Amino acid sequence: MAVNLSDFMDWVVARNPAEEVFHQAVHEVAETVVPYINDNPIYEKIKVLERMAEPDRTISFRVSWADDNGDVQVNRGYRVQFNNSIGPYKGGIRFHPSVNQGVLKFLGFEQTFKNSLTGLPMGGGKGGADFDPKGKSQHEIMRFCQSFMSELYRHIGPNIDVPAGDIGVGGKEIGYMFGQYKRLTNSFEGVLTGKGMEYGGSLMRPEATGYGAVYFLENMLHHRNDAIEGKNAVISGSGNVATHAAEKILHRGGKPLTMSDSGGFIHQPGGFSQEQIDWIKKHKNQRGARISAYADEFSGSSYHEGSRPWGVECDLALPCATQNELNGDEAATLLSNGCMAVSEGANMPCDMDAIGKFLTAGVMYAPGKASNAGGVGMSGLEMSQNSARLHRTEDDLREALKKIMKDIHDACVDSGTISGDKVDYVRGANIAGFKKVADAMLAFGVV
Ligand code: NDP
Ligand code: 2IT
Q1: How many CA atoms within 13 Å lie on the side-chain side of 96?
Q2: Which of 42, 45, 35, 29 is nearest to 82 (CA)?
């Protein structure tokens, strides 16, 4: 019997009440994958899509810690181990007050497809806590990370589940968590990625997501005989992904015009220089620092409180902050301003309405599961360096990252070409990501 998209989505919504972002992520995949399943009925016979939409397990736990005043604080931690058909669970940890089970299920679901696209043996997972690092001291963040790992450590391992960073979790937090894991298990192993260079980290991991999103953009433009040079790019966010995306746009001769945070955006007409990007990196490295301070530091720039950057005229857009940060009206504005390509650095930053508008207009639109896969791709290379106990050079890893992004681009072209050089990257990424996981599940029988 053929799968019916609306019946399938009714089933997903009924089973996962009040998890709207999870419904959204599943819907976006199901829309393109259901017709493919109906053309290949073996997948329907083994209920592969239904099984993929159900995490292997969801772990939730209490994280108690004492703040600097000696008051006890209680947060909730999670790890969603979504699918390990093609490798150990792999995906980041997010610390943000908006974290809940639905958010982590959407991220874990997306991660399964993304990791499959990298071509490396990694399953999908995601974790985090509703902890807000803003306004916390370093000691408070360290104690929180230690308490979080005191529960998480029993569920992870280099061949089981390998977490990494995400919003609110960067090199410092990974260090605190790795230190606690090592203390609890008395084992030095590659259980986290995004580690410091002194203790098993990989060169290029900090840069990989942002650079990768620009490499993907470059591949899309090349496919239409075009290039980044001379083009204006509007970028949201000002964290790890956004700052490295801006840097690579600059390397390619483009002009990164904006960055943002949850308070508003900054606009630097003519584009940020390397020095200005370095200032933002350093400034925003202090958790809780606001991007508004940039406008006081650099004359000629402006700060727009409470707004997002999508109204600034541009050729290229890179949403690199968070989910659903670009809606249909903002997509329409980008299109009327002449935006020709969108490469998502964040996970699911464009809502369904925005995606529909980009696809209808026929502009190049890369979904995050394809365009931001460089970060987890480099994490996969960090895992293999840890297993082999060796260290690859920066040049070698940069070339490896470029190849991963080109291979993902080409897989999208293979599965998503509409006609000539027109590609539906959503369909391409979903089908290419789905196939490998589905075929592994097929091989395992019903488990
Ligand atoms: P960071 O914590 O380094 O930066 C997050 C940025 O996004 C900050 O500028 C932050 O502003 C902004 N932001 C966060 N939440 C919101 C919100 N609700 N509204 C507006 N702005 C917000 O995170 P990353 O750069 O690592 O992650 C950014 C995105 O990229 C996320 O979607 C993440 O899942 C995705 N991603 C990250 C990867 C990685 O390797 N790090 C890999 C692949 C995807 P503020 O300071 O005000 O909170
Ligand atoms: O969303 C993501 O791909 C990440 N946050 C990175 C995951 C990883 O394991 O490096």
Answers
A1: 20
A2: 29
Per-residue pLDDT averaged across 262-279, rounded?
98
Which architecture, in CATH terms, is 206-366?
3-Layer(aba) Sandwich (3.40)
Query: Taking the domains of the chain in order of start, what are their residue ranges?
Result: 5-190, 206-366
| Domains 5-190 and 206-366 in one fold | yes
Which atom belonging to ligand 1 lies closest to the Cα atom of 168? 2
286: pLDDT strictly greater than 90: no
pLDDT at 178: 98
Residue-wise pLDDT for 78-106, tens only, equals: 999 999 999 999 999 999 999 999 999 99
d(CA 333, CA 162): 40
Q: Which residues contact 207 (CB under 8 A, 6 or more apart)?
A: 244, 247, 248
Q: Exactly one of 90, 105, 114, 126 is catalytic; which is it?
A: 126
* Dihedral Cα 127, 212, 230, 367, nearest 10 deg: -60
Pick from 194, 109, 108: nearest CA to 145? 194
- Report the alpha-carbon distance of residue 306 to residue 293 in Å, rounded: 15
Which ligand is closest in space to the CA of residue 212?
1
Tell me: the pLDDT tens digits for 204-260? 999 999 999 999 999 999 999 999 999 999 999 999 999 999 999 999 999 999 999
What pLDDT, in 10s, does the model give residues 314-353?
A: 999 999 999 999 999 999 999 999 999 999 999 999 999 9
Yes or no: say if 407 and 377 are a contact pair by the CB < 8 Å rule. no
The Cα 413–Cα 417 span in angstroms is 5
Residues with CB under 6 A from ligand 2: 90-92, 111, 114, 164, 166, 193, 347, 375-376, 379
User: H or E element: which one contains 248?
Assistant: helix 240-251
- Domain 5-190: CATH architecture, name and number where available: 3-Layer(aba) Sandwich (3.40)
